[in-house]
Amino acid sequence: MQREGSLEAPTRHPLDWKNPEFWDQASAEKELGRIFDICHGCRRCVSLCTTFPTLFDLVDNSPTMELDGVKKEDYWKVVDQCYLCDLCYMTKCPYVPPHPWNVDFPHVMLRAKAIKFKQGVKLRDRLLSSTDALGKLAAIPVVAQTVNAVNKLPPARAAMQAVLGVHKDRELPPYAPRKFRSSASKAKAFPVRDGKNSPGKVAIFATCYANYNEPVMGHDLVALLEHNEIPYVLVEKEACCGMPKFELGDLEGVAALKEKNMPVLARYARERYAILAPVPSCALMFKQELPLLYPRDADTVAVRDAMFDPFEYFVLRKRDGLLKTDFKNALGKVAYHIPCHSRVQNMGQKTREALELIPGTEVTVVERCSGHDGTWGVKTEYYENSMKIGRPVFRQMAAVEANYVSSDCPIAARHIMQGMGEDAKGAIKAHPLTLFRKAYGI
């Protein structure tokens, strides 16, 4: 008799993607079938996203009403609905390793996506996952303003939907005419004060989004570090973390970006810097996904151990008695959405902990997935599903009647504001770094 569920902490096995069997479609479909059959018998993930309802509908509408009645070619309909948020693994599934059934749903999805990618993908998907190339082209003076204006024109958006498959109703993030990395202020020479839990100096991995789309996130992070007299540097050279290509199944693309980033980041890690990435997906890529792809790579392991979410770092500084709490401004009500890629870092709700240090601030946390996930919610075929998944979040955030709507994931925050519509009732969208800076009055 196999026991039901597991009380042990989840553990993740490295992804054996260099093994030729990994790329064998028949072998992958066999593993998909094994996992799907377990999911069909459990069904407790049905409310998370559209992946599981797609699977269960296929089973329930099959001749046998069991997995053996589902055609193997229909397995790929399930794969297409998964955007690798990892919530099923981290919050719902009772059969994750070390349970003997060894259910790692996200990684079997990733394997299938990688096989599908090698068989050919749309130009749109390659384009959307090339964030550095898009940013370098669009985030320059005049071009940025032109791109932003065109993205708001209904005829242009209709053409973009017809040609590229980017949904005409999706509100797209703007491009900034001045990149964060080229406009960040020079660091002041503060002494290094190491704490028991936190290194005393910081290297900032800007991320594509903070660099090209919302540089204010980077500037706010710099201001917070300066206010707390923490010396910092910008990472000397950086490329995309690789998460957009990872979610697409482009593992060779991920490998190429890893080879650009790791030698640089590893040097900071070995020099005892805390490496901060202001976008949760980027921090997660270095903390979890790359170490699972390269478990024996010394540079990757060193960077994993040095990587912090900004508020994870600030809370650790508070525990070390090294974070200032001279807040000048109350924030009132904050409706805070914790992104999936923050939750699966296994660090707790560090942003909430930090915001609750601010007097006169009431934080309401919404823990459901927003449904956007990087480029997935932008695509024509998934837009409606992304809005459907997000509806409980939109409703819960609106019910707070908050002064601010906030999420560590800036794309999720934009998606939530779009979904709330008039129900936002004048609430201001602001990143938690912006809110923390406002509270300090700096």
Describe the structure.
- The strands form two sheets. This protein has a four-stranded parallel sheet with strand order 2-1-3-4, with helices on both faces. A four-stranded parallel sheet has the order 6-5-7-8.
- The longest helix is centred in the middle third of the chain and has 20 residues.
- It is an alpha/beta fold and 442 residues long.
- The protein has 22 helices and eight strands.
- It folds into four domains: 99 residues, no CATH class; 42 residues, no CATH class; 138 residues; 116 residues, Rossmann fold (3-Layer(aba) Sandwich), CATH 3.40.50.
Radius of gyration: 22 Å
How large is the count of helical segments? 22
Q: Give, in spatial order, the strands making up the sheet with the most strands.
A: 2-1-3-4
> Rough shape?
globular
Structural domains: how many: 4
